[in-house]
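The protein record minuted underneath.
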Amino acid sequence: MKKILGTLGIAFLGGVISLAGYKAMIESPQVIVERNIEPTLQTVKANYTPTVINSSSTPTDFTDAADKTVHAVVHVKNTAVRTQQNPYARLFGRNETRKYEQVGTGSGVIISPDGYIVTNNHVIDGASEIEITLNNRKKLKAVLVGADKDNDIALLKVETDEDLPNLPFGNSDNAKIGEWVLAVGNPYNLTSTVTAGIVSAKGRDLDGNRNIEAFIQTDAAVNPGNSGGALVNTRGELIGINTAISSKTGSFIGYSFAVPSNIAKKVVDDLLEYGSVQQALIGFKPDFKNTEELQGVKIAEVFEDSGAKKAGLQQGDVIIKLNDVKITKYSDLKGQLTAKRPGESVNVNIDRNGELLTKVVKLTKVIKLPISNVLQTEFENINSEDKKRFNIKGGAKIKRTENRAFKEFEVGKGYILTKVNGENISSPLNAVELLDKGSNRRLLLEMISPSGQIERFRF
């Protein structure tokens, strides 16, 4: 019994000791400290100060410009009478023809409340009847006032008792590359359609640097039927007449071209006042050789009795500005001159061997002289002094020539053509008619040199 009680006592004492140890070691609160040590970063001092832009601009809104434009853009329908030969009848020796009507469509822009409308020349070229459809579906007959093929502009007139909605001309020189524009027209015979884009380029020359064209290029969608329609800025000002697209399919693929409004307005004013376009020139021959990196237009030759000669322009001068408008290529200069009239004076900024000069040039009228395609030679009238000096009654004096044979034998300005294949020459026009009479002909020319010597040439 004593052993049992002893065992229980020892067990009880062991339990008490274990419980006391548990209380002391396990249930007592423990404090755990965690420390995050950040790595030390090296700092670099810089002068850069970030710019914070607080933009308050609002998205461009085209609604006002579109509303002003759609009512002033019209649908143009032209009807032309064509004649067609029957090819089968010709096989049997008969000459049978038939007449048929050909219909073309395009667009136009009303530029005055009394009914003057500007469009493209190619829209109405050859038309025997022109019909205008206003945006409200009203149809009116139109008459052709005048046209200019070179700039592809035509002026129409409709008679109406009411004032028509119209667009004011804007200043196309102020159009900026990247500026938003709207193209409004009637593509595919649809009623006035509005497309938007930006001005992609200015002074664009489609056919090489020597062409007279100076288009505004945009990426606004233009398709067949848009020709003659309006190109306007976001203020609703007319800055161009949509004219052409660059496409292999005939449909829009990314670029379109418009005649600048300054040129269109000048053409319209000339047609109204003179009945034809008055072309102005400075009076020089441009140098197109080795000018790829040249910013401007280099003068190869200054014409006698021209505004350029009187103002002191010289061979080798580079025209860099005209009336403060930057000139980078020939089409830029032609575009500016097309918008000017003979008799106007312009400020011409030139670079002469690094020296910047400004010359005031009075523009002169373009006189179109007869040019022989066969000889590549331009002729002018002989004067009374020539007739008296050389004892001749008629002839054609060489103004300039690009003929290689003439240049090889030093035949050029001042030579007088008196006979072609034995026929006497009465005038420059007569000379060109005889020279270009037929192809692959032998030509025997008789000429008088400036010194009075009679010279003969065989071609």
Remarks:
- The first strand starts at residue 73 and ends at 85.
